[in-house]
Write a structure and sequence with these properties.
Bound molecules: adenosine monophosphate
Shape: globular
Low-confidence stretches: none
């Protein structure tokens, strides 16, 4: 079944300028802004401007130009934060939640870039 995009989600409203955001950087196809409830000293959300619900939707259906813009922007933000391990930075974590098992709250693709502290185990271990 194809994805149905809900254009009333909060990130769609941010893209339309209906609610404010703390923009980090904007490109032709993408927008990066600070998470409203940061979980680390650096917590940036990166979204495509196109109507994509989650990562697989974007990866399979976005244009090459959108994918290039989005992927390079994530890399640029990591570089600008100074967190690239290959450049002496302390590292970071990328998270892209999808659907109910991924506990995705906002149904517009977003990657979380988290950095600035040790982030702990990737997942809570179930006993
Ligand atoms: P997820 O669970 O992956 O869908 O994460 C949604 C993220 O969006 C959470 O980390 C929220 O804190 C963040 N968020 C929700 N509303 C806003 C907003 N208006 N501006 C910035 N971040 C937001």
């Amino acid at each position: 079944m194809p994805y149905a995009y809900d254009d009333q989600n909060i990130f769609a409203k941010i893209l339309r300028g209906e609610i404010p955001n703390k923009t980090v950087v904007e490109t032709e196809h993408s927008l990066a802004f600070h998470d409203i409830a940061p979980q680390a000293p650096d917590h940036i959300l990166v979204i495509p401007k196109g109507a994509y619900v989650c990562y697989d939707h974007f990866a399979l259906e976005a244009s090459d130009a959108e994918i290039l813009d989005y992927t390079r922007l994530i890399g640029k933000i990591c570089a600008d934060l100074g967190v690239q391990p290959g450049e002496g930075g302390d590292g970071f974590r990328l998270i892209a939640n999808a659907g109910p098992h991924g506990v995705q709250e906002v149904p517009h693709l977003h990657v979380h870039i988290l950095a600035g502290r040790v982030l702990g185990p990737m997942l809570t271990r179930l006993r």
